[in-house]
Amino acid sequence: MTIKILTLFPEMFDALHHSITGKAIDTGKLSIECVDIRLFSTDKHRKCDDAPFGGGAGMVMCAQPIYDAIQSIDPNHEYHRIYLSPKGSVLTTQKAKTLAACSNKLLLLCGRYEGVDQRVLDLCIDEEISIGDYVLTGGELAAMVLVDSVSRFCSGVLGNAESAEDESFSNGLLEYPHYTRPFEFKGLQVPEVLVQGHHKKVDDWRREEAEKITQLRRSDLLTR
Questions:
Q1: Residue 220 to residue 207: CA distance in whole angstroms
Q2: pLDDT 10s digits, 92-114
Q3: Domains of the chain with CATH codes
């Protein structure tokens, strides 16, 4: 998968060059290019924001540098273009899986300040995605969340392909508890069913635990 990220702060994405996404980049399974929007500003000071029409607090990112940046790196609209926005549809496991399966090329736009001039969204963006019902100072952290969640469903990124299919939200439930060695720690023991070697009983226990945790913490998932 190839991902291009438009941002005012490309240095923030150094974090993606570590852990699983870093390994995916090193092995060529994932390609990430950060594009500095400032480089496309026609303002002599590389300014990319201005006061909003109609008044109000804060500044708005200008359409021109964003539009020119997108036209420069994706002139033929080969990429699926996403604006990270609190107004967008919420990112879910299913959405991440769909993006990984259907969009081998993603272009992510990271907003700042009070947002982005609506005209560039109307002209260039395919969809808006939110990572939750809260507001961040910019779209960079949201973009990193999207990259991490989507890349997990790309072939070869995870060492074990089953890992992405056997975790919270993958089947509509929160994930069951995990245990590893030692068998006893601070007086607490691993449930006996997990060490008896009976796979059917283990599967049943995990399902029951997942349902209990989901009922306790996110009963809305069961309603859905």
A1: 17
A2: 999 999 999 988 999 999 999 99
A3: 2-151 (3.40.1280.10), 166-223 (1.10.1270.20)
